[in-house]
Amino acid sequence: MAEEELPGVLILDIGGTHGVLEDLAALLKKHFHLITMKEFLGNKEEMSKKIQSVFVFECRPAIDRELLESLPNLKVIGNSGVGVDHLDLKMISSFGVKVTNTPHAVADPTADIGMALMLASARRLVEGNVLNSPG
Known about the structure:
- It holds the Pfam family 2-Hacid_dh.
- The chain contains 7 helices and 5 strands; from the N terminus they run E-H-E-H-H-E-H-E-H-E-H-H.
- The protein is elongated and about 65 Å long.
- It is 41% helix and 16% strand.
- Helix 5 links the parallel strand 4 and strand 5.
- The N and C termini lie far apart (60 Å).
- It has 2 domains: 8-103, Rossmann fold (3-Layer(aba) Sandwich), CATH 3.40.50.720; 106-134, no CATH class.
- The chain has a 5-stranded parallel β-sheet.
- It has 135 residues and is an alpha/beta fold.
């Protein structure tokens, strides 16, 4: 499938401080034509028609009324995190746009870290490391 045929997805950027991770961007490129916010703002008239989805990574890009009004073909907002508290679901729904998220994406890693912290605390691992450190 040619890139022009793929549905457009708006992302803040690729890489950098707030952009989508490069590995994740590579995965998204298999299914979507990625349009960065910079590209969108540089040519709103053309790009707005191509965008059918917005991929929210670390609460960015911010979804507000102005953005929704500028995306006439928007169908879905995919949120890469667990919660959707940063999204105004009622407003988004009023535009006929669906919202998805990944509620179980960090369940196992969170449990792993919790267990590691409990074991480290019970065994006084941090204190032992400090006492045995050179210097």
